[in-house]
């Protein structure tokens, strides 16, 4: 069931989202060569504690970390480990915040330190396409539009650039639960007119998840969480939590 939010509830989520955005920016700035994933996780917990909120991901049964940290071929649900970041690594930080009874969810991908030559150009283009897909999709989060409009834009942008959608992973509603209805796929599952129509008050996490190579994924590291590309190609994701309002999409 889709939970539409009141203006007051959206205001709480916006405040939580602002806190989360600040935390994510600090984590991205901290994630340099020589820093371990465990150090990023510790910093995230410290920042969340200081914000007066709680770590959303720790509310997921069996998951004990504030972040998902995905390096290179890891797509989602990367558990923080002792891995030390190196120049040229592609790192995704995915993090959620529980504030005032509501969750917000964000992710961003960066190149760690300095990549060189053609490798740098390829990685920069790869990440730029994902950012474009996210921002173009957000423009579709309006009353009168449908989930399928978002799906179409993401798929067209990613595949049009020669990359692959990871179709087994999707965006989602977000609110009192971290994952709510509706699902927000990054590809069209059928006619757009058959998908959910936005009426206002919906809060969703739009999350292009894609790969340089094929879109197939497999479990890695025998931890029951880490999902990586089957062909070991680079993966990335960009995510914002959005409210559909009378004034347009609210990030």
TrEMBL record:
Reactions catalysed: Release of N-terminal amino acids, preferentially methionine, from peptides and arylamides
Entry EC no(s): 3.4.11.18
UniProt family annotation: Belongs to the peptidase M24A family.
Function statement: Removes the N-terminal methionine from nascent proteins. The N-terminal methionine is often cleaved when the second residue in the primary sequence is small and uncharged (Met-Ala-, Cys, Gly, Pro, Ser, Thr, or Val). Requires deformylation of the N(alpha)-formylated initiator methionine before it can be hydrolyzed.
Cofactor(s), names only, from the UniProt record: Co(2+); Zn(2+); Mn(2+); Fe(2+)
Cofactor remark from the record: Binds 2 divalent metal cations per subunit. Has a high-affinity and a low affinity metal-binding site. The true nature of the physiological cofactor is under debate. The enzyme is active with cobalt, zinc, manganese or divalent iron ions.
Species, as recorded: Candidatus Gottesmanbacteria bacterium RBG_13_45_10
HAMAP family: MetAP_1
Residue span, Peptidase M24 domain: 12-246
GO molecular function, one term: metal ion binding
Protein name: Methionine aminopeptidase
InterPro entries, per database record: Creatinase/aminopeptidase-like, Pept_M24, Pept_M24_MAP, Pept_M24A_MAP1
Keywords: Aminopeptidase, Hydrolase, Metal-binding, Protease
One record GO biological process: proteolysis
Cellular component terms per the entry's GO annotation: cytosol
